[in-house]
Amino acid sequence: MLRAILNLIPIAHGKINIKANKIAYVPQRLPAVSGIPISVFESVSTGLLDGKITLFSKKTNKEKVFQALKQVQIDDLAVKSLAKLSGGQLRRVMIAKALVAKPDLLLLDEPTAGLDFNSQKRLFSTLQELKKSGVTILLITHELGGLSALVDRAVVLDRKAKKNISYFGKLPIPIELDPESHHSEELKAKVSESVLGLNS
Known about the structure:
With 200 residues, the chain is α/β, with parallel strands linked by helices. The chain folds into 2 domains: 2-152, 3-Layer(aba) Sandwich (Rossmann fold); 153-200, no CATH class. Helices cover 34% and strands 12% of the residues. It is built from 7 helices and 5 strands. A 3-stranded parallel β-sheet has the order 1-2-3, covered by helices on one side. It starts with a helix and ends in a 5-residue tail after the last helix.
């Protein structure tokens, strides 16, 4: 779905209407960075490339990079090498790189993959601020976890039919569709309690 929105693959039928002026995409797979002599600042700067080699000379560009780093709470890592980052830090670098061009629409593929609890909390805080600022966020995930509080609408795709939508609406997802949308037993229990009206 994300690749279709980005016009990287053709859609089989229907149409996609996008009102955003700028779209940013953060893939699930983290880049291989071992041995690459590039800093966090330099990596995020590449999000501003527009065919003109004026990247590091403009003061405004430097300000945009630091603003993006601050948004994802890694401005203190600006001069650190990508090769020395943790998985959570590297994912936030990828998000900063997407944010530096000021997108209206942010596409995230499995943003919590490989993140520990603290990194997920920081990611939630970042996405919460982006949402408040008016950025539309579309994320693909198998486990919402702590991100569920950000979700206005959920779409559950039918795993078997591949072409059908099993659910479209607000959380919680109906219990009969829960196995299609969650892997975690703890999350299943929480959704079950919510559906049954057991949560306050």
